[in-house]
Amino acid sequence: MVDSPPGVRDGAASHAAEVSTLRLLLIGVAVSVVVSVIVTLAVADTRGRVPVPGWFSILLASAFAALVVVGAAAPWLRARALRCGAAVGVALFFAALVLFAPASGALGGTGSNGTLPWALTAFGGIVVAAVVTGGARLGWSLIVAWIVIVAWFRLLLGGYSLIGLANDAQALTTAATLCVIAVHAVRASRELDAAASRAETIGAEQGAAHGRLAARARVAAFVHDEVLAALRGAAGGAPEQADAVRAQARRATAVVGADRGASDWVEKLRAMADAAGAELRIDRAPRAVVPSALAVEALLIAARQALDNSVRHAGPCDRRILLEMDESGVSFVVVDDGVGFSPESVPPGRLGIAASIEGAMRDVAGGTARVTASPGRGVRVELRWDDTPQIEGDFVERPPLPPRRGARADVVVAGTLFVVAQSLVAGVASAAGPGSGAVPLLVLGGILVSAALTIPALPIRGPLSLRQRGALAVLLVCIAVLGGLWGTPAPLTYGSAWFVPAAGFVLVAVALNARPVLAISGLALLLVMLVVDAVVRGGDPVQLVSIVVRTATIVGLGTLLSVAIVRMRRSTRDYARRAVRIVEQREWDAAARRELEDHTAALDELAGPFLLRVAAGEQLHADDRAHARAIEGRLRDGYRAGRLLHEPLIEAAMRARTRGVDVVLLDDSGEGGVEPALTTEIAAWMTERLDAADERFVGRLLPPGRPFAAQVVVDGRALTFAR
């Protein structure tokens, strides 16, 4: 029984990625709220602010406190609790926003001219919490509501100043950008959960199928190694082999898979090597992969058969075994310098190599087997299992914002808001800023061109890769900001330096294209240029800090979220892989157990009573030996007859073998070679001819492309069945 990963319960894994994303987003909200509070209390310029009563401050503080608490507790909360906590914070914030009008007296005309509290305009984190609560529709709806309410408040309190316009434009663009990130993150997490669910379903089906195949291979190996040998010995009836036949029959009547006593598969291999008198060498890499139970089962079956073949047929020789385990898989090589054999001389019906070695490894994903031999030069058996993930295609690595249809709509809306808001601020700055002239419009052009370079789907001709375009965008936006600093009269204010936070959104777009280091490097250049300008030309420290904090918050939070989302996706993908393997293993165990029980019961019904008689040393007569040959042939039919396993034909084969006829049934039709209805007719046709056979009968389904569907050879006379 395989244990689940920590925290995995039935049904829990179906929303693992979404819950992880909600937790991550609310942690980011808590960080943004803390930054907003710090700026409000210690950094933001309070001059000209409209006074508000204490109850309003408590209401606003309660909204922020609710979001900080749910963000801090997010790693331990379920989806419902996360959404409820986010909803409380969003509701309290918008209650405070709406109640600002009566609290400040602006609604009744008693409020004085001034500006809004800075905390009411720093609502990017609130929008992310709204997306967590109600999805994209609620997030965008609150952005629209905020625009209307804040613009109305500004007009009631005396209109817009350049600083107020720049502040609201940056706040709006920040909220839209974070909304795009949050909406896509939730959508991507749901897609990832859906992919994981599909992969678990496929894993369960594959696990059950592989379990059945492994069980059949195990029974085939058991039948070949023990049962057929006992039946051949009993059918031969040589007196000098009586003791050996009895011992073989005792082994054959033991439980299938009697090697379960060893708990470690390597120890099982070591025990096999010791029993075969082989030298075993083990090379294990420091970070060697742990093979799945399916791979272990296949390796054990194939290794046991390879060693048994060497002991039986190689003669006196040296046997060497090499077991290698590395990060990519497991290799097992058995080499002897015995008499060897010619592979072409092995009859097609022999099960040792085809079923127990090549078949066992072929039935597990990533398994291969190769047998190399030549007369007088020994035998080399190479078994290999490669750890090839089966669900890699469902969890491909993607940038945080790929050009999907839903994501494109959100990006278009956010991009439009960015262009409109920054163009409005640039236009006002150009008209109202003393001595600035056309500088704001030129800077705006540089920012928009650099922003266009970050659009992945933009049809730009030339050999530039997305990484190179990102680097060019950072260079251009820094040049634009440098030009803006040179062309803007000192001292800078938050309004006149509007282009610095605007440039930050370009860096966020660079980060969203999976280039976080490039984005942070660009942020460092912007802040260095700003500080140098303030030192050289002078400036208001409060205004300077406000510009730095808003720009750093925009770039830092956007970059951190993009990086965290990528890592979350990678972590959730690994989690999903583990969950799929657990489901696959569980279904494999169940299917293998059922298959083993069914095959064991059928084997016991067919050969069990007779083998017990042989094991007890009972005297066998001619009829008994004929019955042994019939049972041996029936067991071989199970692995060679394929579509010919119809009850009348199998019963006829048992009767014919009992009366001394050598019967061989072969299915060489391949996959889909003969229709099921046609095989029924062919089986009935073969049954009639088999009942008339005296010495030898070979019935065969022919490969596709032949003019006949089947052929029988009855006592040397060939007959065909037309398609």
Description:
By secondary structure, the protein is α+β, with helices and mostly antiparallel strands. It is 64% helix and 8% strand. The chain contains 20 helices and 9 strands. The chain has helices at 16-43, 54-72, 79-104, 118-121, 124-134, 136-156, 162-236, 242-252, 265-276, 293-313, 351-362, 405-432, 439-452, 466-487, 499-512, 516-537, 541-615, 622-640, 647-658, 676-691; strands at 279-284, 319-325, 329-336, 367-373, 379-386, 662-667, 696-701, 708-714, 717-722. The strands form 2 sheets. The protein has a 5-stranded mixed beta sheet, covered by helices on one side. A 4-stranded mixed beta sheet has the order 6-7-8-9. α20 (676-691) links the parallel β6 and β7 (696-701). The longest helix has 75 residues, at 162-236. The chain is elongated and about 115 Å long.
List the helices and strands and how they pair.
Layout (H helix, E strand, L loop, with lengths): L15 H28 L10 H19 L6 H26 L13 H4 L2 H11 L1 H21 L5 H75 L5 H11 L12 H12 L2 E6 L8 H21 L5 E7 L3 E8 L14 H12 L4 E7 L5 E8 L18 H28 L6 H14 L13 H22 L11 H14 L3 H22 L3 H75 L6 H19 L6 H12 L3 E6 L8 H16 L4 E6 L6 E7 L2 E6 L1
Parallel strand pairs: 1-2, 6-7
Antiparallel strand pairs: 2-3, 3-5, 4-5, 7-8, 8-9
Helix pairs in contact: 1-2, 1-3, 1-5, 1-7, 1-17, 2-3, 3-5, 5-6, 5-7, 6-7, 7-8, 7-10, 7-11, 7-12, 7-15, 7-17, 7-18, 8-17, 9-10, 10-11, 12-13, 13-14, 13-15, 14-15, 14-16, 15-16, 15-17, 16-17, 18-19, 19-20
